[in-house]
Write a structure and sequence with these properties.
The longest helix has about 50 residues. This protein is α/β, with parallel strands linked by helices. Helices cover about 50% and strands about 15% of the residues. The protein is built from twelve helices and ten strands. It has a six-stranded mixed β-sheet, sandwiched between helices. A four-stranded mixed β-sheet has the order 1-2-3-4. About 30% of the residues are buried.
Length: about 400
């Protein structure tokens, strides 16, 4: 398969512009299975590597260049032959590398759990001593002559009671949280959130090779209906539609799921991205979780054979780049406003195509539908994150408690 380097360069340059990067031009070439990207501009700053690389990696992953194994990114001034910085990375993570990464993540989780337990015991001692000291000081103050007439007497007693209750409740929450995580030290946990009717049931049925019995029943689910699945060696937590999280108890439930998870995925769809849709994920502002958005294209291919054939023959009509770019820009604006997260990774999929590819009546089109569903890109994104940052993500899951 011949790689269209000019098309890739146009795509990268458009993405850089959309992300507010002005004056930087990408030039692309290919040498066997290696893609080389040269980023040129009149001036180069020392900190632009952290700004440019995430964009390049995200967009190259989006292009799904199956014949490319390695990507080299070179940054330089237009009038110079010497690069200011250089970065090389593998585009795909092999199954062996992924499985080894999961084993390393499990070892990290064990160490992090043991460290957290020791920390919790130290905190317990500190809390006991703190409340004892406060009680002793309060007792001395209230022994003073006429103290019962002081206006702050009741306030002092209330402060003492509040500190005791808050500190003990927080410690109890920490112990409960660590105990839940202890049961899944070997599991790398991915939580799937999203709106009802965005296609979450369809995606889950696809990943778990289900029969489709739960598709279209999202509105019947309750806030307590969190289901656990195994997918590609990962522990997948499927949550109710995000609209269900309305009260304080529901928000606490969502926060507990986030706390247990190493990676957070949020599914939305191209028919509508609601204002404030990501606000229920506000706890992500305070913790170090990897967060990505899945944009599900909801073009129905199950009713007519002509629609199915058109999708297979002309997928670019469904995955219209200009239209989807507008959705992505809106998602970036929303996640920045609601979660204060910049440059969130977005993977575009067609969940229905993925599901139909697993069904016997569509066996004739199975391979084509699976490829066009782009669900492999979602898996590749997760695998890459686990391979490159998995140990840190597992460590954060315990440390953030």
């Amino acid at each position: 398969m011949k790689i269209d380097t000019e098309a890739i360069a146009r795509h990268l340059n458009q993405s850089l512009t959309l992300n507010g990067i002005i004056g930087v031009t990408a030039k692309v070439s290919v040498n066997h299975d290696c893609l080389k990207i040269v980023l040129e501009s009149v001036a180069v700053t020392k900190k632009d590597q952290d700004q440019l690389l995430p964009i390049i990696k995200r967009e190259i992953a989006y292009l799904n260049l199956t014949s490319i194994k390695t990507v080299k990114v070179c940054r330089k001034r237009i009038d110079s032959f010497e690069p200011n910085w250089y970065h090389k990375y593998d585009l795909k993570v092999s199954q062996a590398e992924f499985e080894d990464a999961l084993k390393q993540c499990s070892k990290t989780a064990n160490s992090a759990y043991n460290l957290s337990i020791r920390y919790a015991k130290k905190i317990e001692i500190v809390i006991i001593q703190l409340n004892s000291d406060i009680e002793a000081v309060s007792h001395e103050i209230l022994k003073l002559k006429g103290s019962e007439q002081f206006q702050f007497t009741e306030t002092l007693k209330q402060i003492q009671s509040d500190i005791k209750n808050i500190s003990e409740d927080s410690l109890e929450y920490l112990v409960i949280s660590l105990d839940k995580k202890r049961k899944h030290l070997k599991d790398f946990t991915v939580a799937l959130f999203g709106r009802t009717k965005a296609g979450k049931s369809t995606l889950r049925e696809t990943l778990t090779r289900g029969n489709g019995s739960t598709i279209g029943k999202g509105s019947q689910r309750t806030t307590r209906d969190v289901t656990e699945y195994s997918w590609q060696g990962l522990r997948l937590l499927d949550t109710p539609g995000i609209e269900a999280y309305k009260g304080e108890d529901d928000t606490q439930k969502a926060n507990e799921i986030i706390d247990q998870s190493d990676i957070i995925l949020y599914l939305t769809s191209d028919d509508s991205v609601q204002p404030g849709e990501f606000k229920p994920m506000a706890q992500l502002q305070q913790i170090n979780k990897y967060f990505a958005v899945i944009l599900n294209v909801k073009y129905d291919i199950s009713n007519k054979l002509e629609d199915l054939q058109m999708f297979i023959d002309n997928p670019e009509m469904v995955f219209d780049e200009d239209r989807l770019s507008q959705h992505k820009n809106h998602i970036h604006s929303q996640t920045q406003a609601d979660l204060n997260l910049d440059n969130v990774d977005i993977v575009t999929i067609h969940a229905q195509a993925g599901f139909l590819s697993t069904q016997a009546e569509y066996q004739e089109y199975s391979s084509q539908l699976w490829d066009l569903s782009k669900i492999e890109e979602l898996y590749s994104l997760i695998a890459y994150q686990i391979y490159t940052h998995g140990k840190n993500l597992r460590l954060s899951t315990f440390a953030d408690s």
